[in-house]
Amino acid sequence: MSDTVEVFIGVGSNVDRERHIRAGLDALARTFGELRVSPVYESEAVGFDGSPFFNLVVGLTTDKTVAELSQCLKAIEVDHGRRPDAKRFSPRTLDLDILTYGDLDRPRDGVDIPRAEILENAFVLRPLADLAGDRTHPLDGRSYRELWNAYRGGQKLWPADFRWR
């Protein structure tokens, strides 16, 4: 058996949000077992005019490589209505992004790790700080709680009325 690694995954949807987020969480739980789930936040679309998003962060452990994990997440997205050829800034039924992979601090298998959005977007940093506030960013060195407290971006987000399980 391979070693397992803790991974944090950003989850988002702005198309039939509750249904797709629930289905995505169910698929992740079936695939990886126990999930740690942050609070869900609602935020405006970034980079395009679109419906507001629901965003959260999920923590899980896996023995999959970065490439295997990435393929698995893409398959879950497609199974839940995401078009593989969709533009980067466009509506999403389900968006699953690897944010961190253990303490890896550089791209691996074509995946940027840690994901730059952690430091750029409130809808990624806030739920990550809620879920793993004492953990440190592999490159920056500050805890996610410290990063959130220092965040000065203009993005607004607010708690969403959402429950899973």
Structure in words:
The model has no long low-confidence stretch (mean pLDDT 91). The chain is built from five helices and six strands; from the N terminus they run E-H-E-E-E-H-E-H-H-H-E. Strands 1, 2, 3, 4, 5 and 6 form a six-stranded antiparallel β-sheet that branches. It is α+β, with helices and mostly antiparallel strands and 165 residues long. Helix 4 crosses helix 5. The radius of gyration is 15 Å and the shape is globular. The chain has a single domain, classed as 2-Layer Sandwich (Alpha-Beta Plaits), CATH 3.30.70.560. It has helices at residues 17-32, 66-79, 117-120, 122-132, 144-150; strands at 5-13, 36-37, 41-43, 53-62, 95-101, 157-159.
Task: Summarize the SSE layout with pairings.
Blueprint: E1 5-13, H1 17-32, E2 36-37, E3 41-43, E4 53-62, H2 66-79, E5 95-101, H3 117-120, H4 122-132, H5 144-150, E6 157-159
Antiparallel strand pairs: 1-4, 1-5, 2-4, 3-4, 3-6
Helix pairs in contact: 4-5
